[in-house]
Amino acid sequence: MKSGARIALVSFVSFVSFVSCNRSGSDAANKAPRIALVLKTLNSPFFNDMQRGAQTAATRLGIDLVVQAADREIDVERQMQIIENLIQTGVQAMALTPSGSREVVPAVVKANRANIPVVIVDTRLDKAAADEAGAKIVSFIGSDNYEGGRIAAKFIVDATKGKANVAVLEGIPGHETGDSRLRGFRDGIKETPAVRIVASQPANWERDQGFNVFQNMLQAHPEIDTLFACNDMMALGATEAIRAAGKAGSIRVVGFDAVDDARKAIKDGVMLASVAQFPDEMGRLAVENAVHAIRHEPIEADAKVRIELITKENVK
Amino acid sequence: MIGLCLLLWILTPHFLTVANMLNVMEQTSINAIVAVGMTYVIITGGIDLSVGSLLALSGVVLASGLKAAWPAALAIAAALGVGAASGLVNGVVIAFGRLPPFIMTLGMMSVARGGALLFTDGRPISGFGAGFRAIATGRVLGIPAPILLTLAIYALAHLVLSRTRFGRYVYGIGGNEEATRLSGVDVRFHKTMVYVVSGVTSAIAAVLLTARLNTAQPIAGIMYELDAIAAVVIGGTSLSGGDGNLGGTLIGALTMGVLRNGLNLLGVSSFLQQLVIGVVIIVAVLVDLMVKERRT
Predict the structure, then answer these.
(1) What is the pLDDT of residue B35?
(2) Which of A18-22, A137-141, A239-243 has the lowest mean pLDDT?
(3) Which of A19-28, A298-307, B200-209, B262-271 is the least confident region?
């Protein structure tokens, strides 16, 4: 047992010496303010873009930016641990994309207690939970997801001339982001009764689940001719299911986020459209607002990042 | 473990502060508690893959009880009851139905997860009273309550394992089940009870997690079985059964907690962290095996 730990140590030493070599540069310039960016995950193009935007802004402003994320997007407990650990390192400000709108509130309270200003990005904190716990944030940065849902709905109404059997792939239940998109979408088709939602199921934001869930939906509802997915990963998974069912080209697919793969699918005609967010801009604003907070400068409390519908006409 | 701490102390000034030490122990508590039941199971030569799902199931039962304005004690009792009952099902089928533990608990992993999702319709349940949340947020003499709870559970579970007849039978079953049976021990009963213990410790971890996050999620605890197994084997308990102890498991859980904390403090990339933890598990167990072989 002890020897096991000893060996754990040996492997750790070799690893750490490697890491500390990498870090010696930043340690020399120790004066730079340290800001943490905690993402939901790093294995998603959306968050990679956000990280890139944040990093560019940090370099420009001379900030030492630490980026950390849990292995899995749904692992709120792990995200909470990361936040607690970063509080211990004495970061001067923290930008955070909550893995859970309610679950992360206790961690924000801990940051408040340590006098670390918190900027929330992409997914809002649950208002009731935050108020009850007294969690305070200096700024929220995100797209208007509700408006994005409405834009997708309006596009579908126009593209189908007001008559469609729509399937919806939802995100993880209880996520503010997905719920807003869904609400926006539902409100957007309300005026057009012939655009009907025939099936609506969560596929938890993931590509493989998008495939499976949509395959099942097609079995149960062969009349489906339009799909709205609350993110592109699920939409892309569903396009594979459509291909497997031999229905390529007969089902309109509209996604959300306009990630690179989705843009390519739009170019190829596999998807019809996607609502674009600008995660790199969110990353940039997150760092800028964190810097404002450190310097006690005025901050925009609710910064809306633009959204845009990407179709074959304007895809890049 | 001590060496690891020394090293981190040298590398980052933030590591060896009282606040951070309490922080690590608090973060470790959930995995450490799940690993108690896992240690019992593994000493009998079994395995329990359902702990993460049982945690989720007992968590949502607890949360819906609290939401229905049950007294906290009753809701907690219900959660422990669900954990114990699920563990009992595992144990009965394994001990009396002779299903391999891997298969039975793999099935239970899916059953309990499905149950938790059905029960909540896939949605998290959140927002509990401050009294209940004190289980995770409270402090006694400056020490966070989860740490005290964890230590109390380890003390009790250690006494049971080392001082009682049940404890001796647990080792006996793992060492030589046939010999234990021939010496007149009701092997099937004691084997069943081991899975009940595991169900109960998962449920205790669920209480703590729910209080900590102020939420019970039906998707909580995914992959916790692997963290718990890792803590047990890093702690020197043999997967072939008959050998091991809880002190080792606690050190195993702390090793993983310290590693994750240290890598966060050093600002290491999340991808590299996963890689390092995997390597540490493999190497730690490998060396433990080699040392044991040399001794015999």
Answers:
(1) 96
(2) A18-22
(3) A19-28
Q: What is the pLDDT of residues B239-274, one digit of tens each?
A: 888 889 999 999 999 988 888 888 888 877 777 888
Closest partner residue to A1 (CB to CB) among B12, B222, B248 is B248
Q: Residue B1: what pLDDT? A: 63
Interface membership of B10 toward A (CB under 8 Å): no
Residue B291 lies in a domain: no
B131 reaches A (C-beta below 8 A):
no
Distance, in Å, from the CA atom of A236 to the CA atom of B18, rounded to the nearest integer, reads 48
- When pLDDT is cut at 50, 70 and 90, the band that residue A41 belongs to is confident
Pairing of strands A93-96, A118-121: parallel
pLDDT at A27: 43
- Domain membership of residue B15 (yes or no) is yes
CATH number at residue B100: 1.10.3470
Q: Tell me the ipTM for this assembly.
A: 0.76
Q: How far is it, in rounded angstroms, from Cα A276 to Cα A279?
A: 9
Q: Using alpha carbons, select from B264, B261, B259, B262 the residue that is nearest to residue B279.
A: B259
Q: Is residue B137 part of a domain?
A: yes
Q: Which long-range contacts (CB under 8 A, 24 or more apart) does B145-149 make?
A: B146/B26, B146/B29, B146/B30, B146/B208, B146/B212, B147/B22, B147/B25, B147/B26, B147/B29, B149/B29, B149/B33, B149/B204, B149/B208
Mean pLDDT over A36-43 rounds to: 91
Say if B12 is an interface residue toward chain A (CB within 8 Å). yes
Inter-chain contacts counted by CB atoms under 8 A, chains A and B: 155
Share of chain A above pLDDT 90, in %: 61
**Phi-psi sector, B210: left (phi>0), alpha (psi -120 to 50), beta:** alpha
- Inter-chain contact A100–B219, Cβ cutoff 8 Å? no
Give the mutation candidate from B24, B128, B215, B237 for the A interface (greatest A CB count, under 10 A): B215
Interface contact A5-B284, CB threshold 8 A? yes
How confident is the prediction for chain A on average, in pLDDT?
Answer: 87
Identify the band that residue A272 occupies on the pLDDT scale cut at 50, 70 and 90: very high
Residues of chain B predicted below pLDDT 50? none
**How far is the C-alpha of A109 from the C-alpha of A106, rounded, in Å?**
5
Per residue, what are the HEC states of chain A? CHHHHHHHHHHHHHHHHHHHHHHHHHHHCCCCCEEEEEECCCCCHHHHHHHHHHHHHHHHHCCEEEEEECCCCCCHHHHHHHHHHHHHCCCCEEEECCCCCCCCHHHHHHHHHCCCCEEEECCCCCHHHHHHHCCCCCEEEEECHHHHHHHHHHHHHHHCCCCEEEEEEECCCCCHHHHHHHHHHHHHHCCCCCEEEEEEEECCCCHHHHHHHHHHHHHHCCCCCEEEECCHHHHHHHHHHHHHCCCCCCCEEEEEECCHHHHHHHHCCCCCEEEECCHHHHHHHHHHHHHHHHCCCCCCCEEEECCEEEECCCCC
Residues of B in contact with A133 (CB under 8 A): 214
The predicted pLDDT at position A30 comes to: 54
Name the residue range of residue B69's domain: 2-286
Q: Is B264 inside a domain boundary?
A: yes
Q: What's the total number of domains in chain B?
A: 1
